[in-house]
Design brief:
Structural class: alpha/beta
Number of domains: 2
Strand order of the largest sheet: 3-6-15-10-13-28-27
Strand content: 25-35%
Helix content: 10-25%
Number of helices: 12
Distance between the termini: 60 Å
Shape: globular
Radius of gyration: 24 Å
Largest sheet: 7 strands, antiparallel
Number of strands: 28
Amino acid sequence: MRWPRIPKDALPLAGLGCLAVMAGVLVVQTRPAASSSEPTVWACGESLKVKADIAPQAENSVWSRANGVARLYGGRQEYVGFQVVVRAGDKPLEKVRVRVTPLKSSDGKELPAGNIDLYRQHYLKVSVPSQHDNITPVPEAAAGEYPVQMVPLRDGAPGPEFTVAAGRNQPVWVDLYIPEDQAPGDYRGEVEVTAGGQPLQSLKTHLTVWKFTLPRETHLKSFLATGPEQIRWGFGLKAGQDAELLRLEDRFFQMAHQHRLNFQPSGGEDLETEWGGRYRPYLDGSAFKERLGKGVGQNLVVVQPGGENQAEIAAQAKKDVAWWKRQGFKADLACYVYDEPREDEEFATVAARAAFLRAAVGKELPLFLTTVTPAKAPVDSIDIWGEIPAADVPGRQAAGQKVWATNHGYAAGPYVDTPGYAGRTQGWMAWKMKLDAWQFWDACYWVDRQNITDAQGKRLPYATINANPSLFVTDTWTNPLTYDQKRNPRHKDWIRINGDGVLFYPGAPAGLQEPLASFTMKSLRRGFQDYEYLWLLAQAGKSGDDVVNQVTPRPNEWARDPELWDRARLELGKRLDAVAAK
């Protein structure tokens, strides 16, 4: 048999401010702006998706209009993000530039401008809110315009300037990377905004670098699957353009690493060929030479040993395990035994595969299964579970097995039309539930291959897409709906999700032959960094669980106010800083 490529098929926090509570859910109100003839500039933190029409905020955890200061805090080896929002008055703003000056301390130390990255956020209009089926909406999903792609603002393509339409906001994402050798202390600089070459407004920037350092390693694992063919399709590569594919793959690996995520553009059929060859530098860490996680490789690889029958698959599994053991990689290895079995026949296949793999390699190749009905699976033969009900998680963990969050998992859905804290919730819920990893079924799902069919209603073969990918690639620059079962006439109960299976976006619409990060990716990184805060506290014999319990009181419940999330991190950071000062 041949295994298929991996498919898809609160309460207020004490001391952090008062919040509105409605029907037991924390809410934040973002009202449309009243008309104003004058342009303005304001700032906010990492967890708010700035809609084009919301009113400028006078005060939040980052910004105070009264003194014009954006106030930031971060540890060393951490990305601290914030947003500078340029709002046009009754006339459009042309040739807008945002510049963040180097941040300097009173004793002459500096956070160089080379550690500061700026991105214009590109809006997508959602007409169909994400839904799990015809009657079950994705929590908090709604129609409207959302900031999605992060377009670099830099000299050369696509350029440092942009236009803001009359009466609209244009958020600019600012990443400040604090090196691991940066001296602790207070640093000050400015955000200078000009339009048409003339000063528009300046904001003061105050950054406190705390005394602790986040580890180079990432302790919450991730599994972002895709295939090299997705990159070929999305970037219009033709057969034989292998050098360009390798260059692009490197950009994806590097971007994922700077967001504390793993990238796996492979089918996992031959471990030694892929991870002992072109992907080895990303596993041993030698490919990562700058900024976050320098010299540290990815922490998880998932395989599906190839073969035409049980004997061949077992032989490949033995070969994979033997090779892996000789390498001494620090990453975990797992086998994706089956994806989302539903019928009894499929569970019988799971049992058979688990049995012959266990006979071949024992527990040296942990078996991963995604299912919502774990009782139908060979419970004692599975080592890692995904998608199981939250009530089953403690029992599986007590039995010595691991549980991963899959897609939305037990927290908010990391999609286009969910709030800015959605990705962030994954890290916090993982800590609360003692989850070992987060899996997203695809990271570059730019062709809705599972739902686009031929004239006979069958899934399109790869050869058909390869012949002319441009006919099938979703226009992700204008269309957020990446997974849509309504395209398939066989489905009557539709999963329709904006941004499903997509963390990276093709850069071609912005004039770039490179991937663009997404707002979701930034939100995930914030959550994974927050997880490291909690890990460091635990290593010091301290706890942040009281803070965790406030923003993630229980599985499938989370605080629904971006301010609360930002303030929760500040509370953890202050505790860590106090520990580091001793």
